[in-house]
Amino acid sequence: MMVLSSQTTASLLYDLLWYIFYTMIKFEFDENKSHSNLEKHGIDFVDAQQLWDDADLLEIPAKTADEPRFLVIGMITGKHWSGVITYRNDCIRIVSVRRSRKEEVVLYES
Predict the structure, then answer these.
(1) Global pTM exceeds 0.70
(2) InterPro entries attached here (predicted)?
């Protein structure tokens, strides 16, 4: 029988919970908006989903007049990206994604 240290067990449990949580996330977006976002900002909404691979992803409520929206700031392949999202029907709806502004990078890094 193999015996694992408590640190190894905790690490494995964390990895399992992370996998379960992140594989259950559902995304939705407008295909046309995704295409125009790719042309304008160099990233589509399929690739933008990699933001949720960042364990340090930052989510901040955004000021909006209609539905609640959030600014997310994270890293994809070593670069900072910022997105605007909303939660709709148990899904994360991606509204837009672009390279992060300097002040957003400072927030993310702090």
Answers:
(1) yes
(2) BrnT_sf (IPR038573), BrnT_toxin (IPR007460)
